[in-house]
């Protein structure tokens, strides 16, 4: 396969950014669109392209991964939750990409070769896994980033090679560092959302609270039940109901709320979302990663209904923990739940402040800055190190507590001070035998000798050397997690 030569920006310092997504739900593509928008604000980016990898795959593959997921959500939610928990284990899959996925990835590889990007950003784990394989095989030289689109980190997003991993919240970063991942390769930016330009003034304090009800994403019958229960609320309010492209649902809800006069406004697909988010006082709907991030950036607290098991339940847990949301587990009580919230003095205002504190409106720009200004060499996690991370995470042991041959070590580029490899201690011994200098330093070397190496060592060196003949490095052990010292006894002035 022809090598894509794109080791950095061209002579004029211009970047070519490829954004890879997958249309499993709207969130991943929305994050990709937000990153595309952020690219247009940077003078150093010459061209940007967005590709939904499912749109160039076979119809069967696209149907099973896209539509099949939502069939399971609707009919077998317990199976979705089980699958999420099983795949939450980091590096549960450590081998090569399966043949069926590899065949469906060929059009994506062709698109990468045609576009010749200097940077590639993934907003779904499918292309992220593919890029790791391409980095290790020496097919691409572009900087690669993985951008998660939910508040809780799931192990499926962790790959064996990448330049930067961007997370939604600090707890995910602490988790990955506890597993042994180097802190210089993991950053907390939030979830990329579109810039909110030309938004109308903030909420009107002299008017009844406005509810923004997202009905189109909650399922027809469930959405109708939610709206019906708001008709029984005792508090003064107005409501805007969003039905998206679901015209049949819109007609049902319009008929349902007709007796309430102008209290309700029912919309289909709308371009008014920035204004609606800015003017609303309370959002009612599912805690998808993108919709939740948009609400938080707008300072809009949420009433969570009908979350998808797995990521949306965990998103909701985080928002409730932050004080920016409440959850209603049945539509039968939603009117009462919102009434209780609105009637408690100051509660809505406290939740709005919590939402503003949780929001990260500049996430898309921060992702691009972190990637384009970050290390040029990727981080490679060897398969042996991946096995250690999986095994010890199941035993609930952090990386800094490990000893012996299976413990983890980091290889750091002396020139760039960035971690370029995470491997087992026993693998380090093999590298030291081959690449140690007479004075005890370690200098990794490539050249024609690469072909004589074992497969794993050859992949490691090919990815991190990136065509250079030699790379001086140092070795570090994972540092223990930060400890909080107990507070001392109170001291009272005499």
Brief synopsis:
The protein is α/β, with parallel strands linked by helices. The chain contains 17 helices and 18 strands.
Description:
The chain has 494 residues and is of the alpha/beta class. It folds into 3 domains: 1-195 and 361-376, Rossmann fold (3-Layer(aba) Sandwich); 210-360, 3-Layer(aba) Sandwich (Rossmann fold), CATH 3.40.50; 378-481, no CATH class. Helix content is 39%, strand content 17%. The longest helix is centred in the first third of the chain and has 17 residues, at 59-75.
Task: Jot down its keywords.
single chain; alpha/beta; Rossmann fold; 3 domains; 17 helices; disordered N terminus; 494 residues; 6-stranded parallel beta sheet; disordered C terminus
């Amino acid at each position: 396969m022809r090598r894509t030569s794109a080791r950095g920006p061209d002579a004029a310092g211009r970047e070519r950014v490829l954004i890879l997504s997958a249309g499993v739900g709207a969130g991943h593509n929305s994050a990709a669109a937000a990153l595309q928008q952020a690219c247009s604000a940077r003078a150093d980016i010459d061209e940007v392209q967005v590709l939904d990898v499912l749109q160039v795959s076979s119809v069967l593959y696209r149907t099973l991964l896209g539509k099949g997921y939502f069939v399971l959500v609707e009919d077998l939610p317990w199976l979705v939750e089980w699958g999420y928990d099983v795949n939450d284990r980091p590096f549960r899959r450590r081998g090569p990409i399966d043949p069926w996925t590899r065949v469906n990835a060929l059009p994506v590889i062709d698109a990468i070769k045609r576009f010749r990007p200097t940077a590639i950003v993934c907003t779904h784990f499918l292309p992220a896994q593919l890029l790791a394989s391409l980095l290790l095989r020496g097919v691409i030289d572009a900087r690669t980033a993985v951008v998660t689109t939910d508040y809780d980190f799931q192990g499926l997003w962790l790959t064996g090679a990448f330049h930067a991993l961007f997370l939604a919240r600090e707890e995910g970063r602490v988790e990955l560092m506890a597993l042994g991942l180097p802190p210089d390769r993991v950053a907390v930016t939030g979830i990329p959302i579109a810039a909110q330009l030309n938004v109308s003034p903030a909420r009107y304090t002299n008017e009844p609270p406005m509810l923004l009800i997202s009905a189109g994403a909650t399922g027809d019958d469930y959405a109708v039940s939610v709206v019906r229960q708001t008709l029984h609320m005792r508090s003064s309010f107005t409501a805007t109901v969003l039905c998206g492209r679901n015209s049949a649902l819109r007609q049902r809800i319009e008929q349902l709320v007709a007796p309430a006069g102008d209290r309700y406004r029912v919309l289909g697909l709308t371009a008014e979302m920035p204004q609606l988010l800015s003017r609303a006082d309370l959002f009612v709907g599912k805690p998808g990663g993108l919709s939740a991030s948009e609400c938080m950036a707008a300072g809009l607290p949420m009433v969570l209904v009908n979350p998808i098991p797995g990521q949306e339940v965990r998103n909701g847990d985080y928002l409730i923990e932050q004080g920016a949301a409440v959850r209603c587990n049945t539509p039968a009580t939603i009117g009462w739940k919102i009434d209780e919230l609105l009637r408690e003095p100051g509660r809505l205002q406290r939740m709005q402040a919590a939402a503003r504190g949780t929001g990260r409106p500049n996430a898309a720009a921060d992702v691009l800055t972190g990637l384009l200004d970050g290390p040029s060499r990727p981080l490679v996690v060897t398969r042996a190190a991946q096995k250690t991370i999986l095994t010890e995470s199941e035993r609930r042991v952090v990386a800094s507590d490990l000893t012996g041959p299976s413990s983890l070590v980091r290889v750091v580029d002396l020139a760039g001070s960035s971690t370029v490899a995470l491997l087992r201690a026993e693998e380090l011994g093999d590298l030291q035998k081959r690449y140690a200098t007479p004075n005890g330093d370690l200098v990794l070397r490539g050249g024609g000798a690469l072909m004589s190496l074992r497969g794993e060592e050859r992949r490691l060196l090919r990815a991190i050397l990136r065509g250079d003949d030699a790379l001086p490095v140092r070795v570090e052990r994972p540092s223990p997690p930060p400890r909080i010292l107990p507070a001392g006894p109170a001291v009272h002035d005499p």
